[in-house]
Specification:
about 675 residues, alpha+beta, Beta-galactosidase, Chain A, domain 5, TIM Barrel, 10-stranded antiparallel beta sheet, 8-stranded antiparallel beta sheet, 12 helices, about 15% helix, about 35% strand
Length: about 675
């Protein structure tokens, strides 16, 4: 990074942007300011009359985040919230483009200005030092604490982090409750901002003036996950997930915290087409990861979720050698790269929920021949996707981790789905003494450490990780690109357990909330549109295809039974062709919680794909083909809601097909049914 050429005095810069200085500022301790590259965002960092570090942020001359405090409360010493003064600052900037090995887009631009502000407490508090780095992009903002090595403070035992976000304008929020047992697998709430309680991040807001915000974190490493707690009015404060050790976080100095982030835009598209968290993570540490190929897969899964088959051994056991070979044959015939098999290993026969001590990750059950199945898959140019359910017992998993990953590499298995089915406080972690265990929260510091340990061990043996019941995604896929995706939200499985279980607005809300954190293994492609006991999905057939464009993942499942998929040859043809890796992605129409239509370009061809999902209200939209390459003519194969389609009745199966000839700039009218969607493949002519 190169230094900024000049520093503008704080008072002048704030006045020029129309941003008010923080109230009750410490006039003996001048403020530090910085601006985004285009000058849209202006940051003011200061201390208040009680010597507490504060920050505020304006946008286009209008206050966005009012005066907000910074600091820590500790379990073993005086808190780091008062008695501070600013003792210096440094500035820098960057403007670079980097390449993703896979992703929503191939190239990412990182253009930002930053300022590092150095705070020091007075003698009464031991002269402790706390640096805060602020990074400003034109479409977002991040801050993190950097605790330098210093005398008198060797280890920090953090009770909680005191990072405030004082949202200055009224508006609407979309959010799920934080610190809950079910790992964010909830239906999103839509409320006024001042009605939020404690939320998990990302939490998305639309202010009354149309500004869109999304609060999250980036680079969550060796730290506890942040929840977003409303203190009063529209003042929010970070609160960290708990630990059995008393302190939420224990770290030796020096260390950096994760980044606290805000995506900022004029529109819904602006927070979606935004790489803020990726840019705040460190570059790829693994080097060449070409052994992982984005793909679609089928699996022995939906039958267990619905209750037709069992994970446990017995007459209903799903993971048999015979069934696995059947699914491999189907995958090979229809161009799927992988087959997921759950229930292949020992440990499922008893009550494994929340303890999982019987699981083996190397020993198969008698009716599943692991070596024979993987060899058969290899002969068909298909990979077996492994499954490691832990029941929340990370002590048992970590003890077998190295042997398991080594085995999978030897068998040609390059992807593993992990699982942590347990209550929020049900993570069984190794203790400090041999044979000792302790219970931890599902996204506390110990579980954050565990997930990275799994990813690093997997990378050593060229295995990619798809984590279910995970710690939330914070952009670490940039640093560890074998961390291909996660669950971390209410997925398709809930549709197996009750009529309209997810609701028609669920997926159009995920696009603007959970999906801002990173790829999700949502498992689309239930073409039967029904779960157990014929429970209907809040979806049309066209919406199931649109999910492949709306919910991004570098591994995409066709989740239904293979016999069912075969009954829908046209839809299956689309699923077999739609890529799982893109060179470009654009949200071309949509609003938070209502609908979302994307245009995505295949990384490996000149084809474009357009599609997405609609919520509970039918609507007419007009899609502009401005994204197409100029001078080319495209044949568009369209899958759309048929006449009378609605998720509410059997008409959910109504689907229409048409073929269009399109060029750059053309307009395409499209009707989206209630709970509907659409998918279009555009192939250029010669």
């Amino acid at each position: 990074m190169r230094p900024l050429k000049c520093l503008v005095p704080a008072f002048a810069l704030a006045l020029a942007a129309g941003a008010p200085l923080p109230a009750a500022a410490d006039t003996a301790n001048p403020a530090v300011t910085a601006a985004s590259p285009d000058g849209t965002l202006v940051l003011t960092v200061s201390t208040d009359s009680s010597s507490r570090p504060t920050w505020s942020l304006s946008r286009k001359g209008k206050l966005l985040i009012g005066t907000s405090k910074l600091g820590f409360t500790l379990t073993d010493g005086l808190n780091m919230v008062r008695g501070f003064r600013i003792v210096g600052s440094d500035t820098a900037s960057a403007n670079e483009t980097w390449e993703q090995p896979w992703g929503e887009r191939r190239f990412v631009t990182d253009k930002h200005n930053e300022v590092l502000v150095r705070f020091q407490q007075n003698d009464e508090y031991g002269n402790r030092q706390m640096n805060v780095r602020f990074r400003l992009f034109d479409n977002g903002f991040g801050l993190r604490y950097e605790l330098p090595e210093q005398p008198g403070l060797k280890t920090m035992k953090i009770a909680d982090e005191w990072t405030e976000f004082n949202v200055a304008q009224l508006g609407t929020a979309w959010w799920v409750t934080g610190l809950e047992w079910n790992r964010e697998e909830q239906v999103y709430q839509r409320t006024p901002i001042d009605s939020v309680a404690t939320a998990q991040t990302p939490i998305t807001m639309r202010l009354d003036d149309g500004t869109h915000l999304a609060f999250h974190e980036a680079a969550l490493v060796d730290y506890s996950a942040m929840n977003f707690k409303r203190a009063e009015g529209q003042l929010f404060r970070s609160t960290l997930s708990p630990s059995s050790r008393g302190a939420s976080v224990i770290r030796d100095l020096p260390f950096n915290t994760p980044w606290r982030t805000i995506r900022i835009a004029d529109s819904a598209a602006g927070i979606v087409e935004n790489d803020l968290e990726l840019n705040l993570n460190e570059p790829n540490k693994l080097g060449n990861v070409s052994w992982f190929k984005p793909m679609k897969y089928v699996g022995i899964w939906w039958g267990m979720i619905r209750g037709d088959w069992s994970w446990a051994e017995g007459p209903r056991h799903g993971a048999t050698t015979t069934r696995a070979k059947q699914y491999i044959d189907f995958a090979a015939q229809h161009g799927f790269g992988g087959v997921l098999v759950e229930g292949w290993d020992k440990g499922w026969n008893h009550d494994w929920f929340g303890h999982g001590q019987e699981f083996s990750y190397t020993e198969a059950v008698p009716d599943f021949d692991l070596k024979a199945v993987t060899a058969y898959a290899a002969s068909k140019k298909v990979q077996l996707i492994g499954h490691n359910e832990t029941g929340g017992n990370i002590a048992n998993y970590e003890a077998q981790l190295e042997d398991a990953m080594k085995l999978y590499q030897s068998l040609g298995m390059h992807s593993v789905k992990t699982g942590y089915v347990a209550d929020a406080g049900g993570i069984i972690a190794p203790g400090d003494k041999p044979g000792e265990v302790r219970m931890e929260f599902h996204d506390g510091q110990r579980q954050v450490q565990h997930h990275l340990k799994v990813v690093e061990a997997a990378a050593k043996y060229q295995v990619a990780i798809d984590a279910h019941e995970p710690v939330k995604d914070t952009g670490l896929r940039r640093t560890y690109p074998n961390w291909i995706d996660r669950e971390g939200a209410r997925g398709m499985e809930y549709n197996a357990w009750g009529a309209f279980a997810n609701g028609p607005n669920h997926e159009p809300t995920l696009v603007y909330t959970r999906m801002l954190s990173g790829p999700m293994d949502f498992t689309p492609g239930v073409l039967s549109l029904e779960g157990a006991n014929h429970a209907p999905l809040a979806s049309t057939l066209a919406k199931q295809l649109g999910l492949y464009l709306a919910i991004y993942s570098p591994i995409q499942m066709a989740a239904d039974f293979v016999e069912t998929l075969a009954k829908y040859p046209k839809e299956l043809d689309f699923i077999s062709k739609v890529p799982a890796d893109w060179s470009e992605s654009h949200l071309i129409a949509g609003e938070v919680g209502d609908y979302a239509i994307f245009a995505r370009k295949d990384r490996n061809s000149a084809d474009w794909y357009v599609g997405g999902v609609n919520g509970s209200a039918a609507r007419d939209v007009t899609l502009s083909m401005d994204f197409l390459d100029p001078g080319k003519t495209y044949t568009a194969t369209v899958y759309k809601d048929g006449e009378g389609a609605t998720y509410l009745t059997d008409a959910r199966h109504n689907i229409a097909y048409t073929t269009l000839t399109l060029r750059k700039g053309d307009k395409v009218p499209l009707w989206l049914a209630a709970g509907g969607g659409a998918a279009i493949r555009l192939h250029p002519g010669k």
